[in-house]
Write a structure and sequence with these properties.
The structure is a homodimer of 286-residue chains. Chain A is of the alpha/beta class and 286 residues long. Chain A has 3 domains: 95 residues, Periplasmic binding protein-like II (D-Maltodextrin-Binding Protein, domain 2, 3-Layer(aba) Sandwich), CATH 3.40.190; 77 residues, D-Maltodextrin-Binding Protein, domain 2 (3-Layer(aba) Sandwich), CATH 3.40.190; 81 residues, 2-Layer Sandwich (Alpha-Beta Plaits). In chain A, 30% of the residues lie in helices and 31% in strands. In chain A, the strands form 3 sheets. In chain A, strands 1, 2, 3, 4, 5 and 11 form a 6-stranded mixed sheet that branches. In chain A, strands 8-7-9-6-10 form a 5-stranded mixed sheet. In chain A, strands 13-14-12-15 form a 4-stranded antiparallel sheet. In chain A, helix 9 packs antiparallel against helix 10. The first copy, chain A, is elongated, with a radius of gyration of 21 Å. The relative contact order of chain A is 0.16. At the A-B interface, strand 4, helix 9 and strand 13 of A face strand 4, helix 9 and strand 13 of B.
Protein backbone atom coordinates (compact mmCIF):
# COMPACT_ATOMS: atom_id res chain seq x y z
CA UNK A 1 0.00 0.00 0.00
CA UNK A 2 1.31 3.43 -0.94
CA UNK A 3 1.53 5.90 1.96
CA UNK A 4 0.20 9.29 1.03
CA UNK A 5 2.62 12.08 1.81
CA UNK A 6 1.10 14.82 4.01
CA UNK A 7 0.48 17.85 1.77
CA UNK A 8 2.80 20.78 2.41
CA UNK A 9 1.12 24.14 2.97
CA UNK A 10 0.80 27.22 0.80
CA UNK A 11 2.36 30.33 2.34
CA UNK A 12 0.73 33.78 2.43
CA UNK A 13 1.19 37.08 4.28
CA UNK A 14 -1.21 37.96 7.11
CA UNK A 15 -3.19 36.08 9.74
CA UNK A 16 -5.52 33.13 8.96
CA UNK A 17 -8.55 34.53 7.12
CA UNK A 18 -6.61 37.17 5.16
CA UNK A 19 -7.83 37.87 1.61
CA UNK A 20 -4.78 35.90 0.45
CA UNK A 21 -6.35 32.82 2.06
CA UNK A 22 -9.47 33.39 -0.08
CA UNK A 23 -7.20 33.49 -3.13
CA UNK A 24 -5.54 30.22 -2.01
CA UNK A 25 -8.96 28.55 -1.67
CA UNK A 26 -10.09 29.82 -5.08
CA UNK A 27 -6.99 28.35 -6.73
CA UNK A 28 -6.38 25.19 -4.69
CA UNK A 29 -9.70 24.25 -3.09
CA UNK A 30 -11.31 25.01 0.30
CA UNK A 31 -9.20 22.56 2.30
CA UNK A 32 -5.74 23.64 1.16
CA UNK A 33 -3.32 23.70 4.14
CA UNK A 34 -1.89 27.16 4.73
CA UNK A 35 1.18 28.76 6.33
CA UNK A 36 0.50 32.36 7.46
CA UNK A 37 3.63 34.56 7.41
CA UNK A 38 4.34 37.96 8.91
CA UNK A 39 6.03 39.64 5.95
CA UNK A 40 5.95 39.24 2.17
CA UNK A 41 9.63 38.34 2.15
CA UNK A 42 8.91 35.43 4.53
CA UNK A 43 6.31 34.12 2.05
CA UNK A 44 8.88 33.94 -0.75
CA UNK A 45 11.50 32.51 1.60
CA UNK A 46 9.19 29.73 2.92
CA UNK A 47 8.63 28.51 -0.62
CA UNK A 48 12.31 28.74 -1.51
CA UNK A 49 13.35 26.87 1.68
CA UNK A 50 10.80 24.10 1.13
CA UNK A 51 8.68 24.88 4.20
CA UNK A 52 5.81 25.57 1.81
CA UNK A 53 4.90 24.01 -1.51
CA UNK A 54 3.38 27.15 -2.96
CA UNK A 55 3.12 30.88 -2.25
CA UNK A 56 0.18 33.22 -2.73
CA UNK A 57 1.06 36.90 -3.17
CA UNK A 58 -1.12 39.94 -3.95
CA UNK A 59 0.23 41.84 -6.94
CA UNK A 60 -2.26 44.66 -7.57
CA UNK A 61 -5.51 46.14 -6.32
CA UNK A 62 -7.93 48.06 -8.54
CA UNK A 63 -8.10 50.99 -6.08
CA UNK A 64 -4.67 51.04 -4.40
CA UNK A 65 -2.53 49.96 -7.39
CA UNK A 66 0.44 47.58 -7.56
CA UNK A 67 2.01 45.92 -4.55
CA UNK A 68 5.47 47.11 -5.53
CA UNK A 69 7.32 45.18 -2.88
CA UNK A 70 6.13 41.93 -4.44
CA UNK A 71 7.29 43.00 -7.92
CA UNK A 72 10.74 43.43 -6.38
CA UNK A 73 10.61 39.97 -4.75
CA UNK A 74 9.50 38.36 -8.05
CA UNK A 75 12.72 39.67 -9.53
CA UNK A 76 14.97 38.66 -6.60
CA UNK A 77 13.60 35.18 -5.94
CA UNK A 78 13.42 32.86 -8.93
CA UNK A 79 10.01 31.34 -8.20
CA UNK A 80 7.82 30.99 -11.29
CA UNK A 81 4.23 32.26 -11.45
CA UNK A 82 1.95 29.31 -12.34
CA UNK A 83 -1.54 30.78 -11.79
CA UNK A 84 -3.42 34.01 -11.13
CA UNK A 85 -6.80 34.81 -9.60
CA UNK A 86 -8.79 37.87 -8.56
CA UNK A 87 -10.62 38.22 -5.27
CA UNK A 88 -13.39 40.78 -4.82
CA UNK A 89 -12.52 42.62 -1.62
CA UNK A 90 -15.69 42.52 0.50
CA UNK A 91 -15.28 44.26 3.84
CA UNK A 92 -17.55 42.99 6.63
CA UNK A 93 -18.14 44.45 10.08
CA UNK A 94 -17.39 41.57 12.46
CA UNK A 95 -17.95 41.60 16.24
CA UNK A 96 -17.43 39.12 19.10
CA UNK A 97 -20.54 36.95 19.70
CA UNK A 98 -23.17 38.81 21.78
CA UNK A 99 -22.01 42.31 20.82
CA UNK A 100 -24.80 44.22 19.04
CA UNK A 101 -24.34 46.95 16.47
CA UNK A 102 -25.76 49.61 18.81
CA UNK A 103 -22.95 49.03 21.33
CA UNK A 104 -20.06 49.47 18.92
CA UNK A 105 -17.89 52.54 19.51
CA UNK A 106 -14.54 51.40 18.00
CA UNK A 107 -13.68 49.52 14.82
CA UNK A 108 -10.23 47.98 14.32
CA UNK A 109 -8.69 47.09 10.96
CA UNK A 110 -5.78 47.67 8.58
CA UNK A 111 -5.60 51.38 7.59
CA UNK A 112 -6.26 50.55 3.90
CA UNK A 113 -9.46 48.67 4.85
CA UNK A 114 -10.62 51.50 7.14
CA UNK A 115 -10.04 53.97 4.30
CA UNK A 116 -12.08 51.83 1.91
CA UNK A 117 -15.13 52.09 4.22
CA UNK A 118 -15.30 55.88 4.65
CA UNK A 119 -19.01 56.09 3.65
CA UNK A 120 -19.88 53.67 6.44
CA UNK A 121 -17.97 55.76 9.00
CA UNK A 122 -19.57 58.98 7.69
CA UNK A 123 -23.02 57.43 8.33
CA UNK A 124 -22.00 56.36 11.87
CA UNK A 125 -20.00 59.24 13.37
CA UNK A 126 -20.16 57.72 16.87
CA UNK A 127 -17.83 54.93 15.73
CA UNK A 128 -14.09 55.57 15.98
CA UNK A 129 -11.62 54.07 13.46
CA UNK A 130 -8.62 52.36 15.07
CA UNK A 131 -5.70 51.29 12.81
CA UNK A 132 -4.48 47.72 13.33
CA UNK A 133 -1.67 45.83 11.60
CA UNK A 134 -3.90 43.32 9.77
CA UNK A 135 -7.57 42.87 8.73
CA UNK A 136 -8.01 39.23 9.83
CA UNK A 137 -5.73 39.84 12.84
CA UNK A 138 -8.15 42.53 14.04
CA UNK A 139 -10.99 39.95 14.12
CA UNK A 140 -8.76 37.57 16.09
CA UNK A 141 -7.97 40.33 18.59
CA UNK A 142 -11.55 41.59 19.19
CA UNK A 143 -12.94 38.04 19.59
CA UNK A 144 -10.08 36.72 21.75
CA UNK A 145 -10.18 39.78 24.02
CA UNK A 146 -13.99 39.62 24.05
CA UNK A 147 -14.25 43.40 23.64
CA UNK A 148 -17.80 44.62 24.37
CA UNK A 149 -17.79 47.88 22.38
CA UNK A 150 -15.58 46.95 19.44
CA UNK A 151 -15.71 45.30 16.03
CA UNK A 152 -13.27 44.61 13.19
CA UNK A 153 -13.36 44.91 9.40
CA UNK A 154 -12.26 41.83 7.45
CA UNK A 155 -13.27 38.99 5.12
CA UNK A 156 -16.10 36.54 5.88
CA UNK A 157 -13.45 33.78 6.08
CA UNK A 158 -11.89 35.65 9.03
CA UNK A 159 -15.29 35.74 10.80
CA UNK A 160 -15.63 31.97 10.27
CA UNK A 161 -12.11 31.17 11.51
CA UNK A 162 -12.16 33.29 14.68
CA UNK A 163 -15.85 32.78 15.54
CA UNK A 164 -16.85 36.41 15.00
CA UNK A 165 -20.37 37.47 13.98
CA UNK A 166 -20.91 39.45 10.80
CA UNK A 167 -23.06 42.47 11.78
CA UNK A 168 -22.95 44.30 8.43
CA UNK A 169 -21.91 42.78 5.11
CA UNK A 170 -20.09 44.59 2.30
CA UNK A 171 -19.53 47.99 3.93
CA UNK A 172 -16.83 49.05 1.43
CA UNK A 173 -17.54 52.38 -0.33
CA UNK A 174 -16.54 51.21 -3.82
CA UNK A 175 -17.48 47.70 -4.94
CA UNK A 176 -15.07 47.75 -7.88
CA UNK A 177 -12.43 46.66 -5.42
CA UNK A 178 -10.51 43.59 -6.61
CA UNK A 179 -7.08 42.24 -5.75
CA UNK A 180 -5.14 40.08 -8.16
CA UNK A 181 -2.97 37.30 -6.69
CA UNK A 182 -0.24 35.08 -8.11
CA UNK A 183 0.43 31.47 -7.14
CA UNK A 184 4.17 30.73 -7.17
CA UNK A 185 5.97 27.37 -7.12
CA UNK A 186 9.61 26.34 -7.08
CA UNK A 187 11.22 25.91 -10.54
CA UNK A 188 11.50 22.17 -9.81
CA UNK A 189 7.81 21.80 -8.85
CA UNK A 190 6.77 23.79 -11.93
CA UNK A 191 8.83 21.44 -14.16
CA UNK A 192 7.32 18.32 -12.60
CA UNK A 193 3.73 19.67 -12.72
CA UNK A 194 3.23 21.57 -16.00
CA UNK A 195 0.25 23.92 -15.85
CA UNK A 196 -2.79 22.63 -17.70
CA UNK A 197 -5.82 24.60 -18.90
CA UNK A 198 -8.88 23.98 -21.12
CA UNK A 199 -8.09 24.00 -24.82
CA UNK A 200 -9.46 27.46 -25.58
CA UNK A 201 -8.20 29.16 -22.42
CA UNK A 202 -6.29 32.42 -22.81
CA UNK A 203 -2.76 32.52 -21.39
CA UNK A 204 -0.66 35.28 -19.92
CA UNK A 205 3.12 35.64 -19.79
CA UNK A 206 4.87 37.90 -17.25
CA UNK A 207 8.42 39.14 -17.69
CA UNK A 208 10.87 41.72 -16.44
CA UNK A 209 13.48 43.59 -18.50
CA UNK A 210 15.73 46.62 -18.55
CA UNK A 211 16.91 48.65 -21.53
CA UNK A 212 19.82 50.95 -22.12
CA UNK A 213 18.94 54.50 -21.10
CA UNK A 214 18.69 55.91 -24.66
CA UNK A 215 15.91 57.87 -26.40
CA UNK A 216 13.14 55.60 -27.67
CA UNK A 217 14.40 52.51 -25.81
CA UNK A 218 11.06 51.66 -24.19
CA UNK A 219 9.20 52.36 -27.43
CA UNK A 220 11.49 49.97 -29.30
CA UNK A 221 11.06 47.34 -26.57
CA UNK A 222 7.27 47.57 -26.84
CA UNK A 223 7.51 47.31 -30.64
CA UNK A 224 8.57 43.67 -30.14
CA UNK A 225 5.01 43.03 -28.96
CA UNK A 226 3.03 45.62 -30.95
CA UNK A 227 4.49 44.50 -34.31
CA UNK A 228 3.21 40.99 -33.53
CA UNK A 229 -0.23 42.12 -32.29
CA UNK A 230 0.51 40.80 -28.80
CA UNK A 231 -1.81 42.53 -26.32
CA UNK A 232 -0.08 44.03 -23.26
CA UNK A 233 -2.24 43.83 -20.15
CA UNK A 234 0.13 45.54 -17.72
CA UNK A 235 3.35 47.51 -17.54
CA UNK A 236 5.00 48.64 -14.35
CA UNK A 237 8.32 50.38 -13.72
CA UNK A 238 10.60 49.91 -10.69
CA UNK A 239 13.90 51.60 -9.87
CA UNK A 240 17.04 49.76 -10.95
CA UNK A 241 19.30 49.22 -7.92
CA UNK A 242 22.65 50.92 -8.23
CA UNK A 243 21.62 52.99 -11.28
CA UNK A 244 19.81 56.10 -10.04
CA UNK A 245 16.95 57.20 -12.35
CA UNK A 246 17.08 54.02 -14.44
CA UNK A 247 14.28 51.47 -14.37
CA UNK A 248 13.27 47.84 -14.66
CA UNK A 249 10.01 47.19 -16.52
CA UNK A 250 7.50 44.47 -15.64
CA UNK A 251 5.27 43.55 -18.49
CA UNK A 252 2.44 41.10 -19.14
CA UNK A 253 1.04 40.02 -22.46
CA UNK A 254 -1.75 37.69 -23.56
CA UNK A 255 -0.24 34.54 -25.06
CA UNK A 256 1.65 31.40 -24.11
CA UNK A 257 5.38 31.97 -23.73
CA UNK A 258 6.05 29.14 -26.22
CA UNK A 259 3.72 30.24 -29.03
CA UNK A 260 5.68 31.03 -32.24
CA UNK A 261 4.55 34.66 -32.00
CA UNK A 262 5.65 35.08 -28.37
CA UNK A 263 8.96 33.35 -29.05
CA UNK A 264 9.71 35.78 -31.86
CA UNK A 265 8.72 38.73 -29.67
CA UNK A 266 11.02 37.56 -26.86
CA UNK A 267 13.91 37.03 -29.26
CA UNK A 268 13.34 40.51 -30.63
CA UNK A 269 13.20 41.98 -27.11
CA UNK A 270 16.43 40.13 -26.20
CA UNK A 271 18.22 42.06 -28.97
CA UNK A 272 17.17 45.35 -27.35
CA UNK A 273 17.25 44.58 -23.64
CA UNK A 274 20.20 44.62 -21.27
CA UNK A 275 18.44 42.07 -19.14
CA UNK A 276 15.34 39.91 -19.65
CA UNK A 277 13.70 37.20 -17.57
CA UNK A 278 10.36 35.42 -17.97
CA UNK A 279 8.59 35.29 -14.60
CA UNK A 280 5.91 32.80 -15.59
CA UNK A 281 3.22 31.70 -18.01
CA UNK A 282 -0.26 30.88 -16.67
CA UNK A 283 -3.93 30.71 -17.70
CA UNK A 284 -5.66 34.10 -17.55
CA UNK A 285 -7.80 34.29 -14.38
CA UNK A 286 -11.57 34.88 -14.43
CA UNK B 1 6.99 103.63 1.17
CA UNK B 2 5.80 100.29 -0.02
CA UNK B 3 5.05 97.77 2.74
CA UNK B 4 6.47 94.36 2.03
CA UNK B 5 3.91 91.57 2.29
CA UNK B 6 4.96 88.80 4.71
CA UNK B 7 5.95 85.79 2.60
CA UNK B 8 3.54 82.85 2.77
CA UNK B 9 5.11 79.51 3.62
CA UNK B 10 5.83 76.45 1.52
CA UNK B 11 4.00 73.31 2.71
CA UNK B 12 5.59 69.87 3.06
CA UNK B 13 4.82 66.57 4.78
CA UNK B 14 6.62 65.63 7.99
CA UNK B 15 8.09 67.49 10.97
CA UNK B 16 10.51 70.44 10.66
CA UNK B 17 13.84 69.08 9.40
CA UNK B 18 12.31 66.46 7.10
CA UNK B 19 14.17 65.78 3.83
CA UNK B 20 11.38 67.77 2.13
CA UNK B 21 12.63 70.83 4.02
CA UNK B 22 16.08 70.29 2.52
CA UNK B 23 14.42 70.21 -0.91
CA UNK B 24 12.58 73.46 -0.10
CA UNK B 25 15.88 75.14 0.90
CA UNK B 26 17.62 73.89 -2.25
CA UNK B 27 14.88 75.38 -4.44
CA UNK B 28 13.90 78.52 -2.51
CA UNK B 29 16.84 79.44 -0.30
CA UNK B 30 17.82 78.65 3.30
CA UNK B 31 15.37 81.10 4.90
CA UNK B 32 12.18 80.01 3.12
CA UNK B 33 9.25 79.94 5.60
CA UNK B 34 7.73 76.46 5.86
CA UNK B 35 4.43 74.85 6.86
CA UNK B 36 4.89 71.23 8.06
CA UNK B 37 1.81 69.04 7.41
CA UNK B 38 0.84 65.63 8.72
CA UNK B 39 -0.25 63.98 5.48
CA UNK B 40 0.54 64.41 1.78
CA UNK B 41 -3.08 65.32 1.08
CA UNK B 42 -2.82 68.21 3.58
CA UNK B 43 0.20 69.54 1.65
CA UNK B 44 -1.81 69.75 -1.60
CA UNK B 45 -4.83 71.17 0.24
CA UNK B 46 -2.80 73.91 2.00
CA UNK B 47 -1.60 75.18 -1.36
CA UNK B 48 -5.06 74.96 -2.93
CA UNK B 49 -6.67 76.80 0.04
CA UNK B 50 -4.06 79.58 0.01
CA UNK B 51 -2.55 78.76 3.42
CA UNK B 52 0.71 78.08 1.58
CA UNK B 53 2.20 79.68 -1.51
CA UNK B 54 4.00 76.55 -2.67
CA UNK B 55 4.13 72.83 -1.95
CA UNK B 56 7.11 70.47 -1.89
CA UNK B 57 6.32 66.79 -2.53
CA UNK B 58 8.62 63.77 -2.92
CA UNK B 59 7.85 61.89 -6.13
CA UNK B 60 10.41 59.08 -6.30
CA UNK B 61 13.37 57.59 -4.49
CA UNK B 62 16.16 55.70 -6.23
CA UNK B 63 15.87 52.75 -3.81
CA UNK B 64 12.19 52.66 -2.80
CA UNK B 65 10.65 53.78 -6.12
CA UNK B 66 7.77 56.15 -6.82
CA UNK B 67 5.65 57.79 -4.14
CA UNK B 68 2.43 56.62 -5.78
CA UNK B 69 0.12 58.53 -3.49
CA UNK B 70 1.58 61.79 -4.79
CA UNK B 71 1.10 60.75 -8.42
CA UNK B 72 -2.58 60.31 -7.56
CA UNK B 73 -2.75 63.76 -5.90
CA UNK B 74 -1.05 65.40 -8.91
CA UNK B 75 -3.94 64.12 -11.00
CA UNK B 76 -6.71 65.08 -8.51
CA UNK B 77 -5.47 68.56 -7.57
CA UNK B 78 -4.74 70.91 -10.46
CA UNK B 79 -1.52 72.40 -9.10
CA UNK B 80 1.21 72.79 -11.72
CA UNK B 81 4.76 71.52 -11.22
CA UNK B 82 7.15 74.47 -11.63
CA UNK B 83 10.48 72.99 -10.45
CA UNK B 84 12.21 69.76 -9.47
CA UNK B 85 15.23 68.95 -7.36
CA UNK B 86 17.01 65.87 -6.00
CA UNK B 87 18.18 65.49 -2.43
CA UNK B 88 20.80 62.94 -1.50
CA UNK B 89 19.38 61.06 1.47
CA UNK B 90 22.10 61.16 4.13
CA UNK B 91 21.09 59.40 7.33
CA UNK B 92 22.81 60.64 10.49
CA UNK B 93 22.77 59.18 13.97
CA UNK B 94 21.57 62.01 16.22
CA UNK B 95 21.45 61.95 20.04
CA UNK B 96 20.41 64.42 22.76
CA UNK B 97 23.36 66.58 23.94
CA UNK B 98 25.58 64.72 26.43
CA UNK B 99 24.62 61.23 25.25
CA UNK B 100 27.68 59.35 24.01
CA UNK B 101 27.72 56.64 21.37
CA UNK B 102 28.70 53.95 23.90
CA UNK B 103 25.47 54.49 25.87
CA UNK B 104 23.07 54.07 22.97
CA UNK B 105 20.84 51.00 23.14
CA UNK B 106 17.82 52.13 21.05
CA UNK B 107 17.54 54.03 17.78
CA UNK B 108 14.23 55.58 16.67
CA UNK B 109 13.33 56.48 13.08
CA UNK B 110 10.91 55.92 10.22
CA UNK B 111 10.93 52.22 9.18
CA UNK B 112 12.24 53.10 5.68
CA UNK B 113 15.21 54.97 7.21
CA UNK B 114 15.94 52.11 9.67
CA UNK B 115 15.91 49.67 6.73
CA UNK B 116 18.33 51.84 4.78
CA UNK B 117 20.91 51.58 7.61
CA UNK B 118 21.02 47.78 8.03
CA UNK B 119 24.84 47.58 7.71
CA UNK B 120 25.18 50.00 10.65
CA UNK B 121 22.85 47.86 12.79
CA UNK B 122 24.69 44.67 11.77
CA UNK B 123 27.96 46.23 13.03
CA UNK B 124 26.31 47.25 16.33
CA UNK B 125 24.09 44.35 17.42
CA UNK B 126 23.62 45.84 20.92
CA UNK B 127 21.48 48.63 19.39
CA UNK B 128 17.76 47.98 18.94
CA UNK B 129 15.79 49.49 16.03
CA UNK B 130 12.53 51.18 17.08
CA UNK B 131 10.09 52.26 14.33
CA UNK B 132 8.77 55.84 14.66
CA UNK B 133 6.30 57.74 12.45
CA UNK B 134 8.80 60.25 11.07
CA UNK B 135 12.61 60.72 10.73
CA UNK B 136 12.83 64.35 11.92
CA UNK B 137 10.04 63.71 14.46
CA UNK B 138 12.22 61.01 16.07
CA UNK B 139 14.99 63.60 16.69
CA UNK B 140 12.43 65.96 18.22
CA UNK B 141 11.22 63.18 20.51
CA UNK B 142 14.63 61.92 21.77
CA UNK B 143 15.90 65.46 22.43
CA UNK B 144 12.68 66.77 24.06
CA UNK B 145 12.39 63.70 26.27
CA UNK B 146 16.13 63.86 26.98
CA UNK B 147 16.48 60.07 26.61
CA UNK B 148 19.82 58.87 27.99
CA UNK B 149 20.19 55.61 25.99
CA UNK B 150 18.56 56.58 22.70
CA UNK B 151 19.30 58.26 19.37
CA UNK B 152 17.41 58.95 16.15
CA UNK B 153 18.19 58.70 12.44
CA UNK B 154 17.46 61.79 10.35
CA UNK B 155 18.86 64.66 8.26
CA UNK B 156 21.49 67.10 9.53
CA UNK B 157 18.84 69.85 9.28
CA UNK B 158 16.78 67.96 11.87
CA UNK B 159 19.80 67.86 14.24
CA UNK B 160 20.22 71.63 13.82
CA UNK B 161 16.52 72.41 14.39
CA UNK B 162 16.02 70.27 17.50
CA UNK B 163 19.48 70.78 19.02
CA UNK B 164 20.57 67.16 18.64
CA UNK B 165 24.23 66.12 18.29
CA UNK B 166 25.35 64.17 15.22
CA UNK B 167 27.29 61.14 16.56
CA UNK B 168 27.77 59.35 13.22
CA UNK B 169 27.37 60.90 9.76
CA UNK B 170 26.10 59.10 6.67
CA UNK B 171 25.27 55.69 8.15
CA UNK B 172 23.08 54.63 5.18
CA UNK B 173 24.12 51.32 3.57
CA UNK B 174 23.76 52.51 -0.04
CA UNK B 175 24.88 56.03 -0.93
CA UNK B 176 23.07 56.00 -4.25
CA UNK B 177 20.00 57.06 -2.32
CA UNK B 178 18.32 60.13 -3.81
CA UNK B 179 14.80 61.48 -3.58
CA UNK B 180 13.33 63.67 -6.31
CA UNK B 181 10.94 66.44 -5.24
CA UNK B 182 8.52 68.68 -7.12
CA UNK B 183 7.68 72.27 -6.26
CA UNK B 184 4.00 73.00 -6.98
CA UNK B 185 2.24 76.37 -7.23
CA UNK B 186 -1.36 77.41 -7.87
CA UNK B 187 -2.27 77.87 -11.57
CA UNK B 188 -2.71 81.58 -10.87
CA UNK B 189 0.72 81.95 -9.23
CA UNK B 190 2.32 80.00 -12.08
CA UNK B 191 0.72 82.36 -14.63
CA UNK B 192 1.91 85.46 -12.80
CA UNK B 193 5.46 84.13 -12.25
CA UNK B 194 6.56 82.26 -15.39
CA UNK B 195 9.47 79.90 -14.72
CA UNK B 196 12.81 81.21 -15.93
CA UNK B 197 16.01 79.26 -16.56
CA UNK B 198 19.43 79.87 -18.16
CA UNK B 199 19.34 79.89 -21.94
CA UNK B 200 20.83 76.44 -22.48
CA UNK B 201 19.00 74.71 -19.61
CA UNK B 202 17.21 71.46 -20.41
CA UNK B 203 13.48 71.35 -19.66
CA UNK B 204 11.15 68.56 -18.64
CA UNK B 205 7.41 68.21 -19.22
CA UNK B 206 5.22 65.93 -17.08
CA UNK B 207 1.82 64.71 -18.21
CA UNK B 208 -0.84 62.11 -17.45
CA UNK B 209 -2.99 60.28 -19.99
CA UNK B 210 -5.19 57.25 -20.48
CA UNK B 211 -5.80 55.24 -23.65
CA UNK B 212 -8.54 52.96 -24.81
CA UNK B 213 -7.85 49.41 -23.67
CA UNK B 214 -6.94 48.03 -27.12
CA UNK B 215 -3.89 46.08 -28.32
CA UNK B 216 -0.95 48.34 -29.03
CA UNK B 217 -2.53 51.43 -27.42
CA UNK B 218 0.45 52.25 -25.20
CA UNK B 219 2.89 51.58 -28.05
CA UNK B 220 0.99 54.00 -30.28
CA UNK B 221 0.89 56.60 -27.49
CA UNK B 222 4.66 56.36 -27.04
CA UNK B 223 5.14 56.66 -30.82
CA UNK B 224 4.00 60.30 -30.50
CA UNK B 225 7.29 60.90 -28.64
CA UNK B 226 9.60 58.33 -30.26
CA UNK B 227 8.80 59.48 -33.81
CA UNK B 228 9.91 62.98 -32.80
CA UNK B 229 13.06 61.85 -30.94
CA UNK B 230 11.70 63.15 -27.63
CA UNK B 231 13.48 61.39 -24.79
CA UNK B 232 11.21 59.87 -22.12
CA UNK B 233 12.76 60.03 -18.66
CA UNK B 234 9.97 58.29 -16.72
CA UNK B 235 6.77 56.33 -17.19
CA UNK B 236 4.55 55.16 -14.35
CA UNK B 237 1.16 53.43 -14.37
CA UNK B 238 -1.65 53.88 -11.82
CA UNK B 239 -5.04 52.16 -11.64
CA UNK B 240 -7.93 54.03 -13.30
CA UNK B 241 -10.70 54.55 -10.73
CA UNK B 242 -13.96 52.85 -11.70
CA UNK B 243 -12.37 50.81 -14.50
CA UNK B 244 -10.81 47.69 -12.97
CA UNK B 245 -7.56 46.63 -14.70
CA UNK B 246 -7.31 49.82 -16.76
CA UNK B 247 -4.55 52.35 -16.13
CA UNK B 248 -3.51 55.98 -16.20
CA UNK B 249 0.05 56.64 -17.40
CA UNK B 250 2.32 59.34 -16.06
CA UNK B 251 5.06 60.30 -18.42
CA UNK B 252 7.96 62.75 -18.51
CA UNK B 253 9.96 63.85 -21.52
CA UNK B 254 12.91 66.19 -22.04
CA UNK B 255 11.70 69.35 -23.76
CA UNK B 256 9.66 72.49 -23.15
CA UNK B 257 5.93 71.92 -23.50
CA UNK B 258 5.72 74.78 -26.03
CA UNK B 259 8.54 73.71 -28.37
CA UNK B 260 7.24 72.94 -31.88
CA UNK B 261 8.30 69.30 -31.48
CA UNK B 262 6.54 68.85 -28.12
CA UNK B 263 3.42 70.59 -29.40
CA UNK B 264 3.21 68.19 -32.33
CA UNK B 265 3.77 65.22 -30.02
CA UNK B 266 0.99 66.36 -27.67
CA UNK B 267 -1.41 66.92 -30.58
CA UNK B 268 -0.58 63.44 -31.84
CA UNK B 269 -1.11 61.95 -28.36
CA UNK B 270 -4.44 63.79 -28.07
CA UNK B 271 -5.69 61.88 -31.15
CA UNK B 272 -4.95 58.59 -29.39
CA UNK B 273 -5.73 59.32 -25.74
CA UNK B 274 -9.07 59.27 -23.98
CA UNK B 275 -7.74 61.80 -21.53
CA UNK B 276 -4.60 63.95 -21.43
CA UNK B 277 -3.39 66.64 -19.05
CA UNK B 278 -0.04 68.42 -18.81
CA UNK B 279 1.07 68.53 -15.15
CA UNK B 280 3.88 71.01 -15.60
CA UNK B 281 6.98 72.14 -17.46
CA UNK B 282 10.14 72.96 -15.48
CA UNK B 283 13.93 73.12 -15.80
CA UNK B 284 15.63 69.74 -15.37
CA UNK B 285 17.12 69.53 -11.86
CA UNK B 286 20.82 68.94 -11.21
Amino acid sequence: MKTRRAAKPVAFQGARGAFSEEAARQLLGPRVPVLPCERFEDVFRSLQDGRAEGAIVPIENTLAGSVHENYDHLQTFELPIVAETSVRIVHNLIAPPGVTFARIRRVFSHPVALNQCLDFFARHPRIERVPFYDTAGSVKMVTEEGLKDAAAIASSVAAEIYGGRILRRSIESDRRNFTRFFLLRTPDYARRHPVRAPRHAQWKTSLVFSTRNIPGALFRALSAFALRDLNLTKIESRPLRGKPWEYLFYLEFLDRVDSPNARNALNHLRELADFLRVLGCYPKGA
